[in-house]
Amino acid sequence: MKKLVLAAALTGAASTAFAGNLSEPVVEAPVIIEETTGSSSGITLPLLLLVLVAAAVAAGD
């Protein structure tokens, strides 16, 4: 009976020994996404497509 009580006490002590971590938490730096706000940032691709369509129409005539 003494061994059973001792085993239960050691099991309880061992389970609480690994319950936490004493090391400092690792904090990662926040990710910052910069948006471009230039005047030509969103117009380059549509203008390029317009030039390609105009060239295709001109070549088809």
Key words describing this protein structure:
rod-shaped; 61 residues; 2 helices; mainly alpha
Describe this entry's structure for a reader:
The chain has 61 residues and is mainly alpha-helical. It has helices at 2-17, 44-60. The longest helix has 17 residues, at 44-60. The protein is rod-shaped.
Summarize it.
By secondary structure, this protein is an all-alpha fold. It has 2 helices and no strands.
Number of strands: 0
Query: Which structural class do the helices and strands define?
Result: mainly alpha
Give the SSE string.
HH
CA-atom Rg in angstroms: 35 Å
Q: What is the helix tally? A: 2
* Mean model confidence by pLDDT: 77
Q: Label the overall shape.
A: rod-shaped
* Strand content bin: under 5%
Helix content: 40-55%
Span between termini = 103 Å
Secondary structure topology:
Blueprint: H1 2-17, H2 44-60
